[in-house]
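Hi R.,

As promised, here are both runs. First protein below:
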Amino acid sequence: FLTFLKLLPARIIPVLTLCLLSPLQPCLSPHHLLFLFFPLFLAAPITLFTSWEDWVFLTRFCFLTDFGRLDFRFRYPKSRCCQNILLYFDDSSQWPAVYKRPEKNCYQKEAVLRPENNQVINLTTRYTWSGCVVRVLSCVGGRSFRSVRERWWYIALSKCGGDGLQLEYEMKLTNGQSFWTQHFSADEFGILETDITFLVIFSMVFLLSCYFAYNLKGRQLLHTTYKMFMTAAGVEVLSLLFHCVYWGLYARDGVGNGSLKILGKLLFSVSFLVFLLMLILLGKGFTVTRARISHSGSVKLSIYMTVYTITYVILFIYEAEFFDPGEVLYAYDSPAGYGLMGLQLVAYVWFCYAVLVSLKHYPEKQPFYVPFFTTYTLWFFAVPVMALIANFGIPRWAREKIVNGIQLGIHLYAHIVFLVITRPSAANKNFPYHVRTSQIGILLSSPKGGEGAESFPHHAYGNSSFLGDSQPNFTELFSIQSDPVKTVEETVARKGPEVPRNSEQKIITTAADLTSILPPPPPPIPPRPAARSPPLPPRLPSFTEYFSMQSGGGGGGLGTKA
C-alpha cells in the first residue's frame, strides 16, 4: 500500500495518510476508501494526516512570478487547536535553513519566516483571513504568490509545543488558468508541448525507417542491426505516447496517472539500451564485416548489458524509495546515476576499440565507420555532460523542463544520424551493408567454417545494388571481378568485313579456325553487272537451318558448322 502511495504525484495532493483512526471519521470508512484508492479520478481528494511531530513537510510547488495561487481547505477538531500553515521559499535563509536540520526545534523553524510577507497562516478564528469557523475548525482560503522570478515554495505544518498534528486537508496549487500551465509547476512548463513535438518527429523517423526496411528487404539487405534500430525507434514512440497521455491527464485535473509515467520511463530506458547495444555491435562489425560475434565477445557483451540493465533498475528503485520530495533532485544525482555515467564511458572505450579493429581489417569500410565514429562520439559524451550540467549548471526551478528537452534532442540526433547513413540510396556512399542476408547462411555453413566463416569477404558497398531489380544475386559474393572480355561477335564486327548474306537475309554458314589470327580482309571486289541473281540452292527436306544464327537487318554475326 505504501508503494502504491509513492506512485501518486506529491505536488498537487500529497498523500500522507499515516493514521488508522481519526476523531473526525474512521480512516477506513467508504468515504475515505474512495479518496485513498481512486485518487486518479479526483482533482483534489481529501487527505487525512496524523503525526506525533510538531513540524512536518507537506508538498512543494514552483509558482510563476505573478500567477501563482494556493487554494486550501483544512479541517481539524477544535481540541487540536491551533495549527499553522508555513510557506517557505527556496532562498538559502528559508527552506534550506530548516529542512533536515534536526538541531533546530519547531520555534526556530518558524522564526525564519516573515509574517509581514504572509508566510504564516494561523488556522484559528483569531486570524482574520484564515476563514475558520467555530466548532470543528474548517478553514477555507487561498493565497496568491508574487516574486521577482519563478520560485520553489515549500508548504509545511506546525504546532509548536503541542501534542502532534491531526487534520484532513485538500490543496490545489495552480499557475494561471491556461490548460498548458494551470496545474503545472513552473519547472514543468513546456514538457507536454515538447513531448508532443518529439512524438510527431519520432513517429516520422519510425515510419521512414519502415519504408527503408521495406526497400532493404526487397534487396535482402535487411540485417539484424537495422531491425534493432527500428525496435529502438518504435519503443521510443511508445514511450513518448505514454508520457503525452500522462501529462495530458495531469493538465486536465492536476493528478494524472503515475503508472503511465513510470511505464513511459521504462520504455525510454529500453529504447536507450537497445540503441546502445546496436552501436556496440556495429562497432564490432556485426552484419558489416562479420556474420556473427565470437563466443567470448558475446559473453562479455551479455555481462555488460546485464550490469547496465540492473543499474537502471536500481536507479528506478532509488528514485522511488529514497528521493526526498522536500528536495529538488535529478535522477542522475544519485549513486545509481553516477554508475550509469561510468558505464556509458566504459561503453565508449569499448566502442572506440571495436571500430579501430574493424577499420584495421576492413579499410574499405572507412566511408561508413569514419562518420559513424565521429557522430556517435558526440552522442556518448552528451549523456554524462548533460547530467553534470543538470546537477550543477541549471537552476533548480527550470531543471526538469530543460533536461527533458535536451534528453529528447540527444535521442533524436542519434536516430536521425543512423537513418541518414543507412538510407538505401545509390547516392549514399556511407551505406554499411554489402552482403545479403541470404548469403550469411552460406558463409556460416561453408567448408571453411569456424572463425574464418565469421568474416565477410572484402567488398566495398556497391551502388549497383540499388540500380537493378530487387532479385538477389547469389554469384556476387563468390565471383572475381575483372575487365570485360570481347566476344567473338564483337571482334568480328569491329575488325572483319560485313558477313555475306543471301537474299533471304540468312547468314551463310562457313568454317573458320578461331585459334589463328585472322588475316587482313582482302580488298573489296567491285560488283559485276548481272541481269539476274543466281538461283537459290535447293533446301534439303529433312534438315532445317538448325545451326545458323539469325539477326536483324544490318547486324554482324558469325556462324559455326557442326
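And here is the second one, sequence first, then its C-alpha cells:
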Amino acid sequence: MKKFFSFLLVVVLLAAVVSIFLKKGSTVLASPSPVGLDMSDYLLSSAGNSEQFIDTATALGVTSIKLAIPWQNVEQSAGLFTWSINPQGTPIDLLDLVKQLDRQGISVTLLLEGFPPYLQYANLSEESIASTYLESWDRYVKAAVAQFGELVDAWQIGESVNLPFELQDQPVVAAVLASPSTYAQRLLLASDAIKEASQSDIVILGGIASDTGNCINQPSAFLNSMNTLQVWDAFDVIGIDLTTYATAPEGKYMYQTYDTVSGTCLTSAEGGFNLAEIIALVDATGSQYGEKPIWITGMAWSDQDLADIASERGTLTDVVRSDFLARASVMLLGRHNVEKIYWQYADSDQAGDASFGIFSQQVLKNLSASLQGLRSAVDASDVLNGYYQYRLTISGMVNIFVWRGYGGDEFLPFSLKNVSGYQLEAFSLDADSVKNGSGMELSADANGETAFLLSERPVLVKAIPSDVQERLSLQMQGVLDSTGRSLKSSAQDLIESQKEKAGQEVEAWVDEKKESLFTMLKESFMEWLDEALNVEQFAK
C-alpha cells in the first residue's frame, strides 16, 4: 500500500509537470534568459517615442530590461509627481511604457535613483541633511511602488552606491548622502515600501561599483558596513555595477580589496585579478553574512577601450564589444552565485561605429537563446595555453563555450576533449541562428575528442547526450528546477501572508516544511524516473 501511494504521488507530480510544460505561455517552455539589457541611458537620451522604444526592445529579443525612474524628472516639486519624461523633446509616459513592455512579455527591473532639484541644504546640520533627504526619498519610493508595483517584480535601490555623490560646491552634503549609514536607511525605507506591496518582489542592494580605486569603498568594505548596520535582511540580491578595463574579460588587473577579518587593505598579487575573480571576492565576502544571489546590474566596455583593441586586432569595434560581453557573461553566469547580467545598451544611431551594432545584437540573441534554462556551470579552461572553456548545463544538454584569449581573428587548431557519448553541433555566436540543425556537426574520435579551428571569437558547441535516459534525465531535471521555481514564486505571497499571522515559531515550521516538501517531491520523481519507468528500455 505504501508503494502504491508513493507511485500515485509521482504520477500526480508527473501529470502536474506535463500540464505546466504543455500549458500555453508556460514559463517552463519559455524560460527567461539570465542576460538582459540596461536600457536606462538609451531611454533618457533617445529622440524616439514609446512605440519606437518598444520596437527596439522587441527586435533585440530580450526577455528582461532595466529602466530608471529618474527622481529629478518625476518629482520636480516636493510631493508633486508626474510619471513622464521628455528626452530630446519627445514626451514618454513611463507607466504606459512599462505596461506595453509587460504585454510584450518583457520583464522590467526598475532603478530608483536620482536627486530632486527642490532639496536645499543651506545651514543644515549633518543630521538634518540626512533626515531631510530621507523624508523625500521615502515619499519618492512609495509613490513609485504605488504607480508601478503591479507591473514590476524587481527594484534596484541606487546606482554605484559606494561612490561619492556628485554635488558640486557641497562637499559636506555629498559626504553625508554617500555614507553607508545613509544608504542603509534608504535601503530600509525602500525595502519596507516594496515588501508591504508584495512580499515576493526582489529588492536589489546597489548596484555597487565593483572597483572604486579606493580600498575603503570597495564592495567588500561596503558589504561589511551593510552587515554592521544590520540591514542584511533588507534585500534579496547583491547588485554589482561591473567596472571593466582596457583589456579582455580574462585579462588581469591590479585590484585592492578590504579584508573584513583584519580590517586592512589588501592588494592583488602580481598579475592581478580578472573580472570573475573580482566577483568571487564579492561572493566570498557576502557569504560571511548570509549567502545572496548576485546580479551584474550593469556591464559595458568604454567606446575608447574597444576602439583601441579593435584597431590592434584589425577588426570592428562592435565585433570586440560582442566578443567581450559574451565571454564575460559565460565566465560569470552559474558561478559565484551570479544569476543575472544586464548589458548596457547604447543606441547605434547615436554612437556610430562604437555602438551596440549588428554583431552585438546578434550575439545577444544567440547567447540569450543558448542560456535559457541554465542550471550550473563548470570552468574547464586551459589558461596556460590560452584556451577558455566553460560547460553550462542546460535542460536536456550541455552547452560548451570555447575561445582563445589571444590572437584576434587568427584561427588555430583546437581539440575539445571528453565529449564521447554526445551528439555535437558547433555554432559561431554571431551566426544567424543557434537552433538545432543550423550549425556544423562534429564527431568525436575513439578518445572522446573532436577538433576544429578557434580564434578569440566565442564558439558554442551543443552537446546532446546520445543516451536516451541521460538526455531525458537532464531534460526533466531542468523542468523540475524551473517548475519548482515557478511553484515557489506562485506560492510565496500566500506563504508570507500566513507567516504574518502565525508568528516566529510557526514561521520557522512553514519554512522547514516548504523546503522539505519540494525536496521530497523532487527526489521521489527522479527516483521514479530513473528506476520505476526504466526509460531506456521503454524507449526501445
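A quick note on the second one: Residues 233 and 290 are 9 Å apart (CA to CA). Let me know what you think.

Best,
J.
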